[in-house]
Amino acid sequence: MKPAITVLGTGRMGAALAHALLKGGHSTTVWNRTIEKTAALAAAGATVAASVLDAVEASEIIVVNVTDYPATAVLLRGDVASALRGKLVVELTSGTPNGAREAGEWATEYGVTYLDGAIMATPDFIGTEHGTILVSGPRQVFEQSKEMLQALGGNVQHVGDDLGLANALDSALLALMWGSLFGALQSIAVCRAESIDLGELARQWTATAPVVEGLVTDLIKRTEAGRLAADDETLSSISPHYSAFRHLVELMDVRKIDRTVVDGYDAIFRRGIAAGHLHDDFAALSQFMGEAG
Fold this sequence. Notes:
This protein is α/β, with parallel strands linked by helices. It folds into 2 domains: 5-161, 3-Layer(aba) Sandwich (Rossmann fold); 197-288, N-(1-d-carboxylethyl)-l-norvaline Dehydrogenase, domain 2. It is built from 12 helices and 8 strands. It has helices at 12-23, 39-44, 52-57, 69-75, 79-83, 97-109, 139-144, 146-152, 165-193, 198-225, 238-255, 260-274; strands spanning 5-8, 28-31, 47-48, 61-64, 88-91, 113-119, 132-136, 155-160. Helix 6 (97-109) links the parallel strand 5 and strand 6 (113-119). The longest helix is centred in the middle third of the chain and has 29 residues, at 165-193. The relative contact order is 0.08.
């Protein structure tokens, strides 16, 4: 028999999690501070709890998806914390690695089994085979809960026993995403300044994206292996990158485009070049990202 699940927090993501559990055949109880946000879930078969305590008492597994860890701490205090003893809490709220570790310490103190997760998807991917959720915590607990977790996303992965790892990976992957999104904003600004149709930008990006993906993959592999000097397999050294980068900066200055983003790039380039890495592989710049200069 499938375990009963409670979902605390039914915003867009929490509602998607609850719908996926219902679809997966789990008896599902939901709670939200604004009860109106549970109406669609009630219509789909979920039980709406009148209080957090009622919601927690209804199930053996509690999935939390609220604003942040402090918000979770407020919900799970007092009588609720006592009611959680012996149960499993799966925290799917965005947070920091240290926040996850502190939550794990709290769980141990109250006799609560705990897993921490990071959802690497938008709500429309929840419950699909492409829904990715990274989970950290005891491997045995993950394996025991895997069927329920896979109802939330087909690509559920255990990333380590350290409770902070899921959030750490989340931040790392978001850094890649934001690099792309802010890069796109920069590209749009250049195109507008130079009267280039954005449809043309989209077409050229489609053609260029595989090259960029290859560069990112190579950068990660070379950094992992410590192969920072240029060699026969180097795809591009710092020198041509910085030459092209200076052309971009000149264009931006002429067109009076905001330089906030590229000034950050320039600072990293300059650190690497000043340290003698102008002709090394682009991966050499990884040495200058560990601590602020």
